[in-house]
Amino acid sequence: MEPVRRAYRSWGGVLRAEGDVVRPRDPQSAARLLLAPPAAPVIAYGCGRSYGDVALNPGGLLVETRHLDCFLAFDPETGLLTCEAGVRLADIFAVISRPQADGSGWMLPVVPGTRFVSVGGAIANDVHGKNDHACGSFGNHVERLELARSDGSRLICSRTENPGLFCATIGGLGLTGLILSATLRLRKVSGLALESEEIRFGDLDEFFALDAESAEAWEYTAAWVDCLAGGAQLGRGIYLRARHAPSIGAEPPSRETKIAVPFAPPISAVNALSLRAFNAAYLRKLGRSGRKTQIASYEKTFFPLDAIGQWNKLYGPRGFYQFQAVIPPQAARDGTADLLRAIADAGQGSMLVVLKRFGSVGSPGLMSFPMPGVTLALDFPNLGDDTLRLLRRLEDIVVTARGRIYPAKDFSMSAATYEKGYPALSAFRHFLDPAMSSAFSRRVGIHPAEAQT
Amino acid sequence: MTLTARRVAIFGATSDIAIAFARRCAEARQRLVLVGRDRAALDRLAADLSVRGAPQVEVQEADFARTAALAAVAENAWSALGGLDVALIAYGSLPDQARVSADAREGEAALALNFVSPALLCDALAARFEVGKAGTIAVITSVAGDRGRQSNYLYGAAKGGLQKFLEGLRHRLFKANVAVLDVRPGFVATKMTAHLPQGGPLWATPEKVAGDIEAAIAKRGVVLYTPWFWFGIMAIVRTLPRPLFHRSKL
Ligand SMILES: Cc1cc2nc3c(=O)[nH]c(=O)nc-3n(C[C@H](O)[C@H](O)[C@H](O)COP(=O)(O)OP(=O)(O)OC[C@H]3O[C@@H](n4cnc5c(N)ncnc54)[C@H](O)[C@@H]3O)c2cc1C
Ligand SMILES: NC(=O)c1ccc[n+]([C@@H]2O[C@H](COP(=O)([O-])OP(=O)(O)OC[C@H]3O[C@@H](n4cnc5c(N)ncnc54)[C@H](OP(=O)(O)O)[C@@H]3O)[C@@H](O)[C@H]2O)c1
User: Fold this and answer.
1) What was the pLDDT predicted at A37?
2) Average pLDDT over residues B74-89
3) pLDDT tens digit string along B23-70?
4) Residue A409 neighbours by CB under 8 Å, 6+ apart
């Protein structure tokens, strides 16, 4: 099992790195890799679906987990699933979420906007889904995990065994060691299909009103926002709410995408012109009633982008940035308005915009991104300095509103912003594995000063 | 699927192509016998296959280089589930041509593992399938067996010999209604080819190849080129006039 020197890119494609990549064949050999760490730092790489640099390690060693892909146990009485860290959520759907005759089935309690992420990556970023207000984040449903550390230990971590390390590893960005396997508590739903409603709204206040009205009865909620609209229409968009439809089943979505973007167009297919046309058309899609109700598989609601493989290439060779932040409740209305105004003023953005409220379930993760408040996520085609200037402006708004930025999506936040957003940083430092670090962890100064060379 | 789940034995079960095939079988709720040399790897795979839906998974250790033991290997696999419906022979090795040319013992070992061993195992299995008058013996050979080439003619000869062997076995088992499938993959991204730059339009995933194997078994195919375009490529390679062929780097 020899490392291969390779160049690789983040999902956003703006950042590139070159370094050694190794793909251990099983958990034993994966753990052994940490034992004899080369001079350079090590970081795990799952499916590379993070937009920024959390899974990049220029000059260092990348441990790809794609062959740690075995299921280990599933108990259909309790819904406890144990699998290796490289198993993808798409595999769990295909194998475990098969509908029973009465439409019921086992569901992953939390899924991000793509099913092509690994269990290890989902834990390390403590990913959230559209049901954060009802179910919390991915880490809330991890019962235990096995962590390999560079001192040779392989530790079982749970709420009762090595609890400190457990909490540090959830949302720990791969910096506490290599997750070998995990036990997840799946959720039994009476119908795998979703009943969903889309409702057009005219501005930000309507969003908050709809959201307040929906939170109780709808476990999945999120909104699309027209990022070009300003003035009285600031924050207009389409609200989506969904819940499981009792007795109606849904087949698992496919494990691979059927169509893929074969090559990058020479310039971004997403630009001011295409964006304006798209947003105008999209706003009209609900017709005069401004409302649409349907019952269907969860696939289109949860994973709209997974229909097209490598869609990230559409942004052209310069790639794109993604930005996601959460603003706490007391500043949510104004902070979100400030962010949207800055974006509309800059005339940048894309059709991929998500606005959603996070709830107060609270994750065990020490460094998890989700916290109560409102989160805004969107893509920006890379226009060079103009885009970086806008990202800095957005960062300032987040800091002023006492919010935080999501590392999985980040390319550019400063060390100071990171530290302000994640007050548990100094506690987290006790759990770092000295062999592990990433482009992100070095950039935002996660490692204590004396360890930096 | 019949009332009782199909019984499948896989020889060389920890090969990447075999793993992908076994997972398909498990998800179709078939019963499995996994035969290989690495106990820990087999046990890990068995657990995975059980979660994926296999109602029964048996694990057996065997070193296929030990040709004297092959009769017992066949017998054990056959009796583990009280007979078999499908046998897939997947093991093999891809030796470096320069090394086997320089070292006769390595060459002999590679010929044994890639030709002698699977041929003998096939025969041992054939006798049992023949009595039952049903079932499929599938063997992974390679497009490399279609024409001898300077870059890997020892491997190519072993695989080509195996192709001929299967042709004869198929002839023999025709009367017994036993299918013999010769699987000829092109480039597949597995641990066997991990030292090569695995990428580009000619490379397939083990999952793709496994899906093709399953489909060919279902329709009782005879020779499977996988992915399909290798049929065309090899038709050209086989018929390339010798003067041209000799100047190529193939
Ligand atoms: C279309 C799309 C939609 C998305 N939607 C959402 C969303 O709704 N909500 C959300 O939260 N995120 C979302 N994301 C982000 C994505 O869910 C996260 O970035 C996720 O962590 C990616 O998982 P991965 O397996 O690709 O990990 P990678 O991106 O490869 O790695 C992510 C981090 O996990 C670490 N890691 C990976 N495996 C291990 C391991 N075995 N042990 C220790 N550390 C490990 C890496 O070191 C790195 O720090 C989305 C991404 C895309 C592309
Ligand atoms: N990959 C390709 O491009 C390609 C192309 C054409 C044909 N093929 C053929 O496809 C088949 C499967 O290969 P693969 O690509 O899946 O590669 P692989 O993963 O390397 O599989 C080869 C398997 O053979 C097993 N094996 C080797 N010697 C053995 C022995 N003495 N006793 C027991 N088991 C032994 C190995 O066992 P361990 O797991 O214990 O090492 C391994 O599982 C082979 O016949 C190969 O020739 C491959």
Assistant:
1) 64
2) 98
3) 999 999 999 999 999 999 999 999 999 999 999 999 999 999 999 999
4) A50, A51, A52, A322, A323, A324, A377
CB A264 within 8 A of CB A316: yes
In the three-class reduction of DSSP (H, G, I as helix; E, B as strand; rest coil), residue B221 is classed as: coil
B chain contacts of residue A25, beta-carbon cutoff 8 Å:
191
> Which of A71, A72, A81, A310 would best serve as a mutation to test chain B binding (most B beta carbons within 10 A)?
A71
Query: Does the model's pTM come out above 0.90?
Result: yes
| Alpha carbon distance A148, A31 (integer Å) | 6
pLDDT score, position B249: 83
| A117, A180, A221, A356: residue to mutate for ligand 1 pocket, most atoms within 8 A of CB | A117
Which residue bears the tokens 């106990």?
B39
Nearest CA in chain B to A91: B52
Mode of pairing for the β-strands spanning A308-309 and A259-260? parallel
**Integer Rg of chain B from CA:** 18
**What are the structure tokens assigned to B233, written together?**
């490529």
- Using CB atoms within 10 Å of the CB of residue A384, give its burial: 0 to 12 exposed, 13 to 18 middle, 19+ buried: exposed
- Is A316 within 8 Å of A267 (Cβ atoms)? yes
Give the pLDDT mean for B97-112: 97
Question: Residue A334: what are its φ and ψ, rounded to 5°?
Answer: -75, -40
Instruction: Tell me whether residue B242 is exposed, middle or buried, using C-beta atoms within 10 angstroms of its C-beta: 0 to 12, 13 to 18, 19 or more.
Output: exposed
Residues A244, A103: Cα–Cα separation, whole Å: 10
Enter the tokens of residue A381: 């085609």
Strands A373-381 and A237-244: unpaired
Give the integer Cα–Cα distance in Å for B210 and B118. 19
Express each pLDDT in B213-231 by its tens digit: 999 999 999 999 999 999 9
Q: How far apart are CA B245 and CA B129, in angstroms?
A: 41
CA nearest neighbour of B148 among B134, B131, B161 = B161
**The complex's ipTM?**
0.93
Cα A25 to the center of its chain, rounded Å: 26
Q: The tokens of B101 are what?
A: 């040319």
Residue entry with tokens 């050694």 = A20
* C-alpha dihedral (B72, B78, B80, B86), degrees to nearest 10: 140
Task: Give the closest of B41, B52, B191 to A95, CB-based.
Answer: B52
Residue A55 has pLDDT above 80, yes or no: yes
Mean pLDDT, rounded, for A79-105 = 98
- CA A381 – CA A260 distance, rounded (Å): 20
Which residues of B are the active-site residues?
A: 155
CB A414 within 8 A of CB A444: yes
The C-alpha atoms of residue A153 and residue A444 are separated, in whole angstroms, by 28
- The pLDDT-based confidence of A453 (bands split at 50, 70, 90) is very low
Q: Say if B204 is an interface residue toward chain A (CB within 8 Å).
A: no
Contact A71 B27 (CB under 8 A): no
Half-sphere exposure at residue A361, Cβ-oriented, CA atoms within 13 angstroms: 23
For A368, the 3-state DSSP assignment is coil
Q: Using the predicted structure, report yes or no on whether residue B14 has a pLDDT greater than 50.
A: yes
pLDDT at position B2 over 70: no
Closest CA to B118 of B161, B58, B177: B161
pLDDT at A382: 93
Average pLDDT, chain A: 94
pLDDT at B248: 87
Mutate to test the pocket of ligand 1, among A11, A47, A50 (most ligand atoms within 8 A of CB): A50
